[in-house]
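Quick one: structure tokens for this chain, please?
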Amino acid sequence: MPSRLWLFIAFVIAFGSEPAQAETASKMLAVVLDQATVAKLPPPTSTRIDGNPMVADGAAKILAVVLDQATVAELPPRTSTLIVGNPMIADVTMLKTGAAMVVTGKGYGQTNLIGLDDEGRVLLDEQLRVLPPKTVVVLQNGTSHVSYSCNPDCMPTAQLGDDPKSFNEVGGQISSRNGYALGSGGGK
């Protein structure tokens, strides 16, 4: 079957044949795509600068961030060095004041974050967890995996784990569009 027919069938199954309000569709997506992830997270115990919860998992705290999103979190006083266990999972940048850091989700999974002072003492030892976006619908056809960003309309997007052909086509279009926006005429 053509991929557009699969997309149509998936949306009819997910949302029914009646038109849905954008708010209803996004709530349904959040429940379908994120319920398992949320169920595994322990309850919040403290708060980041942006007001989002930081959760405790046994003795270690977990800072959760969505793939391709950034969040700001406080640092202990005197933190001078930050170490990320796996930089392919998350990127961390200390702000100039040294009082906070920006954490960006780069790949799915979990890694650790260590903060040291000038004398090498550990001031921070936390886990970083990168979660999938709540607005992405994934269509699976055999081994083919194609992602669509739905907020509220669905458009193709390049996500980790997508079929290489789809990923490269969508990624190429995004690069070309960005090149046009920057005035280089195509981004290639």
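Residues 3-37+134-182 form one domain.
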